[in-house]
Amino acid sequence: MTGTSITSVRGRRVWDSRGRPTVEAEVAVSCGIVGRAIAPAGASRGSGEAMELRDGGTAFGGQGVDRAVAQVNGPIAALLERRDVADQAGLDAAMIALDGTPDKSKLGGNAMIAVSMAALHAAAGAARVPLWRHLADTIGATPRLPMPMIQIFGGGAHAAGRLDVQDFLMVPLAADSFDHALAICAEVYASAGKIMADAGKRSGVADEGGWWPNFDTNEEAIATAVRAIEKAGFRPGEDVGIALDIAATELRQGGGYRLRREGKTLSGDEMIAMLTGWLKAYPIVSIEDPLAEDDWDATWRFTAGAGQVQVIGDDLLVTNEMRVRRAVATRAVNAVLIKPNQAGTITETLAALQAARDGGLATIVSARSGESEDATIVHLATGWDAGQLKVGSFARSERMAKWNEGLRVAEALGAAAFAGRKALAPL
Ligand code: PGA
Ligand code: ZN
C-alpha cells in the first residue's frame, strides 16, 4: 500500500441551495488525507447530460438520493478501495465501466461526479499542493484566474418562468485582475438592485442570486442591465459587457420557440432575427444556447451571422467530447460551457475542455442552478486555465463561496495571473 492508496469511499445525503437532496462523497487515502465534494444539480438540463439517480416517489418531490448514496457506499466503494488516488483517469474509467450505460443511469451521474471530484481533492491533498496547482501540473497548464461572468437578473427555469430568457449577466471587460473583476460586478449588481427598488420592482432574488426579473419583456431586462452598468459608473460594452443565456431548449415547442411572457411563438429563423436584433441594439458580448439543443443548423446560422460575439454551447454540447468535436468541425458555436456533472467524471470533463481548446473554441467552466459550498469548479477553471467562469450571481453563499475561493487562489498566484477579456471568443 502506498501513501496514495484509497482506504475508503463514503457517500452521504446533504442538501443543495434549493433545499433539495444531493450527494456528498469522501475519499480517504492511506496517508490520512480525505477529499470531499458535493454534486451540483441543474434545472434546465440538456437531454444529453449524465443522468442523476433520484429516488422518485413522494418524498422530496421525488428528488431523494438514497439510491445514489447507496451506489457510492456499495459498488463504487468496493471498486475504488485499494486503488491509487493519483490515477484519476483510471478511477474514472473503472466507474464508467462498472456503470456500463451510455447515460450513467446505473450508478448515477450525481454519485459518480461527487466521487470523481472527491478523489481529485484527495489526490491534491496527498501531493500536498493546492487543487488548482495539482490540476495545472497534471496537464502542464499555466494556472490563471478566469474572467467571471456574473448574473444580474435570473429568469427562465430559475424564476418560475417570470421571463423567457434564463440569464442576464455581465462580463467585467475592464478588469485587470480577478479581485478587480469582482469589485466591478459588485457595483453593477448593487446598482441593478437599486434601480429595481426605486421602480418598486424589487422582490428578492432567483435561484442563482440574480434579482427576480419583474419585467414585462426580455428586452426591458437587457435595457435595465445596461442602465445598471451606467449608473455604477461604467461604460456598457467597453468596461462591462452584457451576456445572455437564452437556454432556448426550455422554450422549444414543436419545431418553434414559445416566448410565453411575450405571447408569441417564433420559428428558428424568427428567433435568429430577434436575437440578432438584440446584438445590434445592446452591448452584448456573449450569448449562450441561442437555439435549442436539437437545432444545430439554426445555431450554426445564428453564429455565422453574429459577428464578433461569443456564442456558447451548453445544452447543445453537454460537456461531451464528441459533441464538442462536432462543434469544432461545424463551427456551430465558438465557445463551450464546461459543467462537470453534465459529463459525470473529471476525466470526461477535461476531455471536453481539451477538445474545445484544441479546436480553437473558448471555454467557460460553469456551476449549476442547484449548488452548495463546494468550490471545486474554481480550481478547475484556474488550474486548467479555462479562461472564464460562470457561477450565477453575486449573492447567496453557494455563489459567494466560489468567488471568495477565487480570491484566495488569486492571492497565492498573484494578481497578474488573470485571463482577462482576451479569454472571450472569438479568440
Ligand atoms: P441549470 O442552468 O444549472 O439550471 O441547468 C444553468 C445554465 O443553463 O447555464
Ligand atoms: Zn445554459
Beta strand %: 15-25%
Globular, elongated, flat, extended or rod-shaped: what is the shape? globular
Poorly predicted runs: none
Count the helices. How many? 13
What structural category arises from helix and sheet content? alpha/beta
Helix residue percentage: 25-40%
Chemical compounds bound to the protein: 2-phosphoglycolic acid, zinc ion
What strand line-up does the widest sheet have? Answer: 4-5-6-10-11-12-13-14
Number of DSSP E strands = 14
Query: For the terminal residues, how far apart are their CA atoms?
Result: 46 Å
Oligomer: single chain
The biggest beta sheet is recorded as: 8 strands, mixed, barrel
Average pLDDT reading: 98
Give an account of the 3D structure.
This protein is of the alpha/beta class and 427 residues long. 39% of the residues lie in helices and 18% in strands. It has helices spanning 66-80, 88-99, 109-126, 131-139, 178-198, 218-231, 268-281, 296-306, 321-330, 340-343, 346-358, 376-383, 397-413, and strands at residues 6-15, 21-29, 34-38, 147-154, 167-171, 241-245, 252-253, 256-259, 264-266, 284-288, 310-313, 335-338, 362-366, 387-393. Strand 1 and strand 2 (21-29) form a beta hairpin. Helix 3 packs across helix 4, helix 5 (178-198) crosses helix 6 and helix 9 (321-330) packs parallel to helix 11 (346-358). The radius of gyration is 21 Å and the shape is globular. The structure holds 2-phosphoglycolic acid and zinc ion.
